[in-house]
Amino acid sequence: MNSDKQVSVVIRTRDKERFLEKLLEMLAVQTLTPSEIIIVDNYSSEEKRRFLESQILECFWNFFRGKEISLKVVTISDEEFSHAYSTNLGVHEAENELVCITNAHSLPTSVHWLQDGVRHFKNSNVAGVSGFFLPHSEGKVFGKLDKLLYYFSQKLVLRQDWCSTINCIIRKSLWQIYPFDENLPKIIPQTRKYGLEDYDWSKEMIFRGYKIIVDPSFSVFHSHGKGVDEMARNIRGYFIYRRLQQKINQLKRPRKSFSKLLA
To answer: Which of 94, 116, 132, 244 has the fewest CB atoms below 10 angstroms from its CB?
Structure first.
């Protein structure tokens, strides 16, 4: 594994999501350039998979020409998909100790985003770093209301130690000891839809004596641009996530997690 002075970026996507190209462009201008980018595509059809791969190669050539950076595209079908498995697959492919995990409907809030996250790993006791999620500026009334909801929810996030895979950096060496648990839905069935394997991972790291950092300067714009529907979904989702977090908090630790990639 390469040193912790280098970082891999894992981008999870389903087909070509609308911010994927912009995300690649923003990665190209970061003050800390990743040494590799790994795209995990949960494709809906072979035609869309082929289209995505051709588009990625074109974007990569346009944005990263002349830079020493590698690209991997890993594909999984709907039948193979789970939140934990798609994330584990990206981390498994990474060559660096530090692995940044995000998705194709998230965008860094600044050109210092990656550097701001990585700086915390000077402390060897830090297992992971996460940040805030801010709604994309959609220029809509509901978008502005959603910003208020995000503001209050992020104030609550500061009181939690949650390394969310919407936007985080983790140590691969700790992931190898405790991967994102692909068996979590067998224990808490609702996590099959809503994920939270990242919340479980964070809680396990804390139990084992490591730190999870939530840094507002390491934040992303993250929303789906669906106006009132998304705002209602966010309100409903908040209460669902709180209930699931409480169930995860009740799990006995230390735990042993499972990934078929490490079995």
So the answer is: 244
Total domains in the chain come to: 1
Identify the H or E element spanning 1: none
Q: What is the pTM of this model?
A: 0.89
Residue 254 lies in a domain: no
C-beta of residue 170 within 8 angstroms of C-beta of residue 97? no
Does residue 262 lie within any of the structural domains? Answer: no
Task: Per-residue pLDDT tens, the chain, 263 aa: give them.
Answer: 655 569 999 999 987 777 899 999 999 999 999 999 999 998 878 888 888 888 899 999 999 998 999 999 999 988 899 999 999 999 999 999 999 999 998 999 999 999 999 999 999 999 999 998 877 665 444 445 445 555 555 555 445 688 999 999 999 999 999 999 999 999 999 999 989 999 999 999 999 999 999 998 999 987 655 555 555 565 676 788 889 999 999 999 999 999 999 98
